[in-house]
Backbone:
């Protein structure tokens, strides 16, 4: 029987927190009468996390475990968790007990009864370090809102809820877990909301993420924006850029020739810095154009060149 909820939990070296987390989830789901499954994805932990998962699976029939051979990252862990999930609503949360399972009923209600495609948690009050985590996070989310147009205060919050169709329609890879709302929006899911959620102080261990996530996150955001707009039509980007660059160089060269003819300048055209600037821009324009053609050939021969999501089909 298809469960009401699938809870996907990526984890890495969280042996202390797992028993308490699963017991809490079970208590909430049983109290609300949800049929559910908990999918725990061990991202190559080096402690005894996997042994704890196996013990929990023996104790609770709702627990399922997936273990990676090595540490791949949070996005691959979510990808395999999403692939295995069977619930009508899929909820993700971190394994460190900073996300509260008490949020599950309201998140489920927002998806099933209020019609949201995706609901992202907003940790309005945080217990992280104000300088090293809170301030960079606010700046990071501000840039995300400005670039993507998605008005979420905390896009990187691990506590999220999805319609099943959403997680089956997107592909999370690299470090794209930070931008699942962006991927969902570009896949055509427009009703994206947020809910203020409780943020709890870390009880065990230490954070596995550092400053580099903000730099990597910004680069990933640019990648998503480019791929969503030009992934299936790269010539529209490289062709326009190449044409503008080439035309700029051509016009600059033409102006040098006209000046030479009109004013009889004794200095040779090739001795002027402007000539080499014009030549460089024309070469760059040509290269951009060629890049566009090559990218078009790659796209047209890609296996997923005609992968499109349909909302509904009738008459079969």
Residues:
């Amino acid at each position: 029987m298809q469960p009401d909820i699938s809870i996907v939990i990526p984890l890495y070296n969280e042996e202390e927190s797992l028993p308490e987390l699963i017991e809490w989830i079970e208590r909430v789901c049983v109290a609300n009468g949800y049929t559910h499954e908990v999918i725990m994805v061990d991202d190559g932990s080096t402690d005894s996390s996997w042994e704890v998962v196996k013990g929990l699976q023996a104790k609770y029939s709702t627990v399922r475990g997936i273990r990676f051979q090595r540490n791949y990252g949070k996005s691959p862990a979510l990808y395999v968790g999403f692939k295995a999930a069977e619930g009508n609503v899929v909820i993700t949360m971190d394994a460190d007990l900073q996300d509260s399972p008490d949020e599950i009923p309201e998140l489920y209600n927002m998806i099933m009864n209020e019609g949201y495609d995706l609901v992202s948690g907003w940790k309005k009050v945080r217990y992280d370090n104000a300088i090293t985590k809170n301030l960079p996070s606010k700046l990071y989310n501000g840039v995300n809102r400005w670039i993507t147009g998605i008005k979420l205060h905390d896009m990187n919050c691990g506590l999220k809820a999805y319609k099943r169709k959403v997680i089956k329609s997107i592909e999370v890879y690299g470090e794209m877990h930070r931008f699942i709302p962006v991927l969902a929006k570009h896949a055509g899911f427009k009703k994206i909301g947020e809910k203020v959620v409780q943020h709890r102080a870390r009880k065990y261990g230490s954070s596995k993420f550092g400053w580099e996530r903000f730099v990597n996150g910004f680069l990933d955001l640019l990648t998503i924006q480019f791929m969503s707009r030009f992934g299936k039509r790269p010539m529209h980007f490289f062709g326009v850029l190449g044409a503008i660059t080439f035309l700029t160089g051509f016009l600059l060269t033409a102006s040098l020739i006209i000046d030479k003819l009109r004013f009889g300048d004794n200095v040779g055209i090739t001795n002027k810095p402007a000539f080499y600037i014009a030549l460089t821009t024309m070469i760059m324009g040509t290269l951009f154009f060629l890049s566009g053609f090559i990218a078009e050939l790659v796209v047209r021969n890609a296996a997923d060149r005609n992968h499109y999501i349909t909302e509904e089909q009738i008459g079969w």
Notes: The two ends are 25 Å apart (CA to CA). The first strand starts at residue 5 and ends at 11. Residues 235-263 form the longest helix (29 residues).
